[in-house]
Amino acid sequence: xxxxxxxxxxxxxxxxxxxxVVKSTTPREKLVPKMGYMEDLSDxxxxxxxxxxxxxxxGLILPAATGILPWLTPVAAFALALTMAVGTALHVxxxxxxxxxxxxxxxxxxxxxxxxxxx
Length: 119
Fold this sequence. Notes:
mainly alpha, 5 helices, 79% helix
């Protein structure tokens, strides 16, 4: 079970790291055509979301992998789930599909619970 948890954690970290790097390094105006919801965010908010997603991705892997403060791994997972809940609310408000945010949020919850139970 721990191997499956590591695989899911690693995949989730890759997704959030990629999303975080894109959102934190690309000007918001260039993201709007592909990510319409960026219209509702300021430049600072968009960059902050990207930074938080990138830090969350690192928080999923580094504490558990190094054994240094491993309790931070489920905290990072739950924080990412909360981030996805806010993202889901934004998509619902804009009458867009919220499925990707919901799926990522549920996966983050599963990872967080997995690390609490099995970590």
